[in-house]
């Protein structure tokens, strides 16, 4: 996991670190975004899936 720094963004004005991806509502881990035929957020730990609407 050498690219872990890409999951976060740093606000230099307030000195806060913010996570770029969503957090799973079931287990609290970071979710992955998949951009294939049907875009979705997926948790690799518990299997929770949120499908993204095309218009948003």
- The N- and C-terminal alpha carbons lie at a distance of 30 Å
Q: What overall form do the CA principal axes indicate?
A: globular
Order of helices and strands: EEEEE
Indicate the structural class: mainly beta
Helix content: under 10%
As laid out across the biggest beta sheet, the strand order is 3-4-5
Number of E strands: 5
Task: Give start-end ranges of low-pLDDT stretches.
Answer: none
Q: What fraction of residues sit in β-strands? A: 25-35%
Can you count the helices? 0
Rg calc: 13 Å
Return the average pLDDT rounded to an integer: 89
User: The biggest beta sheet, please?
Assistant: 3 strands, antiparallel
């Amino acid at each position: 996991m050498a690219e872990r720094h890409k999951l976060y963004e740093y606000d230099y004005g307030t000195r806060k670190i913010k996570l770029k991806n969503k957090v799973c509502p079931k287990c609290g881990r970071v979710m992955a975004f998949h951009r294939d035929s049907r875009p979705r957020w997926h948790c690799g730990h518990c299997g929770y899936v949120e499908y993204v609407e095309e218009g948003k």
